[in-house]
From TrEMBL:
Domain Thioredoxin residue range list: 1-161
Official protein name in the record: Glutathione peroxidase
PROSITE patterns registered for this protein in UniProt: GLUTATHIONE_PEROXID_1 (PS00460), GLUTATHIONE_PEROXID_2 (PS00763), GLUTATHIONE_PEROXID_3 (PS51355), THIOREDOXIN_2 (PS51352)
Naturally occurring in which organism (per UniProt): Prevotella aurantiaca
Molecular function per GO: peroxidase activity
A Pfam cross-reference name: GSHPx
Active site: 38
Keyword Ion transport attributed: no
Amino acid sequence: MDKKTIYDFIVKDKKGNDVSLSTYKGKVILVVNTASKCGFTPQFEGLEKLWKDFGDKGLQVIGFPCNQFANQELGTDDQIQEFCSLNYGVTFPIMKKIKVNGSEADPLYKWLKSEKGGFLTSAIKWNFTKFLINKEGEVVGRFGPTTSPASIEKYIVKELNR
């Protein structure tokens, strides 16, 4: 059987429409679980900067809101979009709110965690955990919430230049 890649997954956009991640074939993808009321929320600014600086060079940033950590994402999908846009000028796609841990975790996140486990456990420990996907759809990096988007830039550039 062929090894799974990110292109095998279908996610929901903010309106609940299916989005095949194969749409992003050949791009370097940064997948992030986000929250509007988190100490790391200002990372939206850095994520948007990466998207603006490298989007036309082949980077795709995708946010997945999640309310599994201290109720830091209570808003509706529309409220989340508005918050990200108004407060941080976010223009990269923010998908429908999902679960990233537990039995109801989105299949994409189950796969991401199985590909790149975390420290001690593969569970997502908090908001703004970042997964870097190469142009072949494989997970090549996992970065914790405290890792700033700016410090990931060198890894993104490395993948873009492959």
